[in-house]
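Researcher: I'd like a structural prediction for the single chain below. Treat it as a standalone chain; there are no partners to consider.
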Amino acid sequence: MSIGKGNPIKIFYHIRNRILLIKRNGTGLQLFLFMVYMLIVIFPFNVIKHLVKLEFDKLKYFLKGTINGVLASRFSNNYYLGIKS
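Model: Treating it as a single chain, here is the predicted structure.
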């Protein structure tokens, strides 16, 4: 099943899984470099892009996915914290 391009749920899982992947499989240095890259490049770019296009629902799910990925425990099997609209 395909979610479709630009779907807010796809945005949530894409950013969340990006963070979880590096947290689970990366070394300390890789995690640090990824978080710096995320903070300097990925986060501002996506926030500005969604604000300029007035895509507030996509921005909301981008922020939720980012928070979910950052706050999830590195060793937990239960990463899902819920995404209520």
